[in-house]
Specification:
Length: 245
């Protein structure tokens, strides 16, 4: 981490994709693949800075880092962008590296100097107390951020999965119903409930629901209703069975 060459753009510290991959213990291909798979989660200017054309030419001229002359676009990752990549990789090494980036890299030198000036007239003992308190507050903030964005674990996934199956089964009329035994109708019902869950919580899989929203997800599933058209199909096929009996 100490050998990481500082790069700045738009008055903030940033990292190239190659630097980010190296720090996180992975390769550029995986970083780019995670980015492309979750492109909608990233916002230009907030999570990354994309340099092309004249902007890229001007950046190259600063000589902050050696770049191939053949590069025609360059992604620079901000602190928030580095967090999203750590979340995508979700390895202990990536999270440890992210913590070090926050503490040692993304903090610009002038910010460190400002803190030092603020405490320069205090005794060493009082300085130590303030610095420990400040570091503790930062750590608590980061832990809260991690907790608020942590996705459900395997056991919680099973709870949501079971709740979804039970609710869909209820609308189908139980396992003995004609609707349940009809593979096409059964698949439609299960697909419908998971589609609505993903849309409501804005995730690509129910497994990515935040742990803090577990209770809300189960409540949503228990209150879920089948669409009118599909509900009518279920009623018709079940009523046909009753009529034949």
């Amino acid at each position: 981490m100490n050998n990481l060459k500082p790069i700045e753009q738009n008055n903030q510290r940033v990292l190239t994709t190659a630097q980010l991959a190296d720090v996180y213990g992975t390769d550029m291909e995986k970083v780019n693949r995670n980015f492309n798979r979750n492109r909608e989660r990233y916002t230009a200017g907030k999570h990354f800075i994309l340099l092309e054309g004249m902007e890229l030419k001007q950046f190259k001229a600063t000589g902050q880092i050696d770049l191939s002359p053949n590069i025609n676009r360059l992604y620079l990752w901000t602190e928030k962008g580095a967090w999203l990549h750590a979340k995508s990789l979700n390895t202990d090494k990536a999270w440890d590296a992210y913590e070090m980036l926050v503490d040692d890299y993304y903090v610009k030198q002038e910010q460190l100097n400002s803190v030092a000036d603020h405490y320069q007239n205090l005794s060493p003992e009082v300085k130590a107390i303030f610095l420990i308190d400040e570091r503790t507050q930062k750590m608590e903030t980061r832990l809260n951020q991690l907790e608020n964005n942590m996705t459900i674990d395997y056991g919680q996934q099973l709870s949501i999965q079971n709740a979804g199956k039970a609710r869909a089964l209820q609308f189908l009329g139980g396992k003995e119903s004609a609707a349940y035994r009809d593979k096409s109708i059964r698949q439609k019902a299960f697909s419908a409930i998971w589609k609505d869950v993903k849309e409501y919580f804005n995730v690509d899989s129910y497994k990515n629901i935040r742990a803090t929203e577990l209770d809300k997800a189960i409540e949503f599933i228990r209150g879920w209703s089948m669409s009118g058209r599909l509900c009518r199909e279920v009623e018709l096929i079940n009523s046909q069975l009753q009529f034949s009996e």
